[in-house]
Amino acid sequence: MEQPKYYDTVKELITATSSAYKDDVAFRVKIKSGKDPQYKDYTYADFIENVNAMGANLYDSGFKGGRIAIIGRNQYYWVVTHLACLFGGIVSVPIDKELPLGEMEDSLIRAGVDAVVFDVKNKEQIEQIKANGKTKIREFICMNEKSDEYRCVEDMVNAGRELPEEIRKEFSDYKPSGESMAILLFTSGTTSKSKAVMLSNKGLACNVADLLVFEVFDEHSTNIAFLPFHHILGSTGMLFALADGMRTVFSDGIRYIKQNLTEYGVTFFLGVPALIDKMYETVEKGIEKQGKTKTVERAKKLANFLLKFGIDIRRKLFKEIIAQMGGQLKYIISGGAPLSAAVAQGFTDLGIEIYQGYGLTETSPVLAAENKGHIRAGSIGRPLPSVQVEFRDKDEDGMGELCAKAPNVMIGYYENDELTSEVLEDGWFHTGDLGYMDKDGYIFLTGRKKDMIVLKNGKKAFPEEIEILLNKIPEIQDSFVFGEPIDGDWTDLRIAVQVQYSAKEIAAEHGELTEVQIRDLIWDKVKDVNQTIPHYKRVTDLYLTEEPFIKTTSLKIKRKEQIKKVLDV
After folding, report:
1. pTM
2. Among candidates 529, 562, 528, which has minimal Cα distance to 543?
């Protein structure tokens, strides 16, 4: 592996790589939908020019050194605004567009933003926030609609080009500090009020530089920006695509993902396990519906046998199956939660390379990842080049808390020194994840420290590893494993699970069943899973629900809230 070329700031990194790809298409944007869709292409040169023009306008509007919140769907002018902030020393504050009004308003107040760039889809919330008058926001700017009431980003870009040269030069010549805060990002906390994480310019640039040498993909790949940019994996993934010379397109929404993969010829997909699992489930159901399950399994065995001799026929052999995912998909990157080993193997067998990464919002985000030729069953990969890893406070089995030291570790939590000091110690970030590293440097994680179920006999169980197994059961849509007190004694726990199911889907497969029959059906399959895991990890109590679990916007279960709901405590 070659050594990464590091830059102090995102501006230096993206400017350098953009000059290398200046005539290539950086973004393809759909400007008209329907039977005869129309698209507009922006080259890398166009994009950088737009960023500089927007930045000059922000300077001219008095926002230099300020903070700008961005609220909305993934789209071209979201990226232009975000990069204008990062290039010009303006703190970008991405806000989740799905937040309830009160939480959105609270985030804007806590961040002390000077302006908000918003999607027209969020106009109603913005109008209410303006009417409430609780913020000190100087201007609201619409991302994607022209009106007399608000400036829009496209008009600001056009106006920025016409500003006096001295203003445009002030922005283009500005050199942000690598150590300065570039992004203020609110976490979608699963247990408490969201934390505001301060990420540095250098940390973001370093993480992308590491990934450029760690993950090598085909030139001119087409990336679909599906993960929301207000999540750090989505926005850093977008920076990676720009730094790698990819063409980026935008999804019309989860319902249209298959259509978008086809229409844009997408080759690179960054997603979370929940979505990737659904993609593979759809593929499997398609094979089953055609009655080709056994044929495909035999073909997989043949393809894997030939691979041992360096002969790869997978993509030719499974061309029709890959066509269900657009026909061009070659790479899937998974992050945000553990990926099912069966799903990863399933995509690999079809000839689609799939890698998972590990990290947190606080680490900009990637600390470790799999890459070509370096995949080990059960591992989340090896640390990136600039990342140091230690496992501290190990137990008798050698399992400890993963701690990391790297340029991409956060500056700290905004206005919360006490919480910062709890997780940052001499530059080492305590992730809260437990696991170990093998002799070859591969990291294995067992679960979150705060979610660990400690049984009375001292044995420890982790909900996530049991949930992964249970979620493979076709009749289970989702599962929530927790420690249930025996006779109300919270020091004496047993493993319990609440499963989400669909009576309609079960009826389609098994015929109409009573709730008791559904419980018996699912319980029998849970007992089958129990036989595959150590005795102390086995599920001993089962709850059923058709209601979705309480989750964050990044689809992680809010465990404390969910357990209160299950046990009514």
Report:
1. 0.87
2. 562
